[in-house]
Amino acid sequence: MLPPLVRKTWRDDRRTTIGWTAGVGAFTAVYTGFYSQFQGAAELKQDALPQGMLDFLGIADMLSPAGYLQATVFSLIGPLLVLMCATTLAARTIARPEEDGGMELLLANPLSRKGFATQRLTAAATAITLVAVAPWIVLSILVPAIGIDVPLGNVAAACAGLVLLAWCFTGIAFLAGAVTGKRGTVLAVTGVIGVTTYMANALSNISDSVSGLKWVSPFYYFIGGDPLHDGWNPAHLLLLAGIGVTTAAAGVVLFDRRDVGV
Amino acid sequence: MTSDTAVLAEDLTKFYGPRRGIEELTLDVRAGEVMGFLGPNGAGKTTTIRLLLDFLRPTRGHARVLGMDSRRDKAALHRQIGYLPGELAFPGRETAEELLRFFGDARGGVPWTAVTGLAERLDLDLSRPVRAMSKGNKQKVGLVQAFMHRPALLILDEPTSGLDPLMQQEFLAMVREARDHGQTVFMSSHVLAEVQSTADRVAIVRDGRLAAVEKVETLGRRAVRSVEIHFADPVEAADFTGLPGVTQVEVTGPVLRCTVDGRLDPLIKAAARHEVIDLLSAEPDLEETFLSYYYTGEGTSDVAAAGA
């Protein structure tokens, strides 16, 4: 039997989780489903966009099947949607109830502070994982069905990267909320880190002089190893998971040390 | 610490940065008693309660609750506490029933009849979403979750706020029953009247410090009362000013109005020298006693006696 607080958190997040899962899944399905029709358009788009722009957007080539998936699902909107959901749900673990007053009755549960924070995070992280896995499920069905010529193993590698990217930012967002208890701070911190590291990775693609920037970007570890062409990159994935787990653990420890609801 | 002390706070101090929450608060609540915790808004009642519950960490001093350390033993301790927050907000969009089932499960299972019994007493409809409820009904949900698992210690922050008079009576009956079951009740209020009928002792905080701890009867006996005496003939104010305990003497023709702190005897003896037609004495009002603590600072000297 799962802890009551985990089930309660899932119940409270249910509508959000279902909505985001459906949205992310539909987004993936629509883009992937138009693969055959987009081939001509993709060619035009690729010709129209300067190479620098293509590099910035992380689009190696839109003509190859792997390039098409990367440009549509994995370059910008896919990760953006998943990270928005991750930030929203992570902000609900501690920061939102602390701001709207619901925290007192939640924290009055017979759990230690660490136990409370861990259960809240566990529930949110599983919901976020469900959302982040949606493209994986959709692509596992559609890629063979439509006949997109990308090995399913490579699709899995890219999709796993998306899940771990979500974990990475869930950890960061959770840490911000656990330390400050303020939803605005969670959104600001996660948003700023997300945008700057995305830019860092994007800029490192177009200019060799700043190519070192990519090493500080979770987005590089997510997609920079080109999993759709080259398959699994365990070191990159482990690093993403490591950032997520470390920030989450730091959040649990720091939440245990502060005043709540002041 | 012995098992007959439910709450023991020693030198409990909390500063929020430079702002004082409470300072050097030393207090014990005996097991099985109902203690009222009184003070004007902003005096530090909620801060004290949140320190006892380990939501806040003290700047100095420490608290032991039910013989346990608030922080280290939080999990075990909170299972035995029923807490009603002063500013009640409920997490989620559930119905009262779903929410109360969650609270029950989280505390290791509560017989559902205990919940429905309380809901019936308070005339609460459990099938409605808590978010859509009125303030009074939310307060009832808060009371049900605090009482439902028969906790050894009830910590209630402004428990009657939002309740209509009938429900306030029902609540006070619940508090008395809790005491009969051997439960300890620590309830804060800024209105004396609501603890007057149930509390065994009251602790009064003022400006973050403990001003007094007294038995309710003691508070009543030493209460300030207003007295009005009608005489057959006009009297002189001078006959009554300077009597022990008599203040605010006001004479209009044959009518004397004054306030008496303590025994009425000196005033009665002085009045007996004239022909008395009528005598009105307002029942000792704890509210006024309380205000006299707050405004005049009187009662500070009682802390030593009360702490003994």
From TrEMBL, chain A:
Q: Which GO terms describe its cellular component?
A: plasma membrane
Keywords on this record?
Membrane, Transmembrane, Transmembrane helix
Keyword tRNA processing (UniProt): no
Q: Where are the transmembrane segments?
A: 17-35, 68-91, 121-143, 155-179, 186-206, 235-255
What protein name does the entry list?
ABC transporter permease
Q: GO molecular function terms here?
A: ABC-type transporter activity
Automatic annotation (TrEMBL), chain B:
Q: Which CDD domains match?
A: ABC_DR_subfamily_A (cd03230)
What the entry lists under Pfam families is as follows:
ABC_tran
Q: Does the keyword Methyltransferase apply?
A: no
InterPro entries, sorted: AAA+_ATPase, ABC_transporter-like_ATP-bd, ABC_transporter-like_CS, P-loop_NTPase
Kindly list the GO molecular function terms attached to this UniProt entry: ATP binding; ATP hydrolysis activity
Task: Tell me the first and last residues of the signal peptide.
Answer: none
**What SMART domains does the record tag this protein with?**
AAA (SM00382)
Residue ranges occupied by any ABC transporter domain in the UniProt entry: 7-232
Name the UniProt key words of this record, in alphabetical order: ATP-binding, Nucleotide-binding, Transport
Family from the record: Belongs to the ABC transporter superfamily.
Protein's UniProt name: ABC transporter
The species this protein belongs to is Actinoplanes utahensis
Q: What is the lineage of its organism?
A: Bacteria, Bacillati, Actinomycetota, Actinomycetes, Micromonosporales
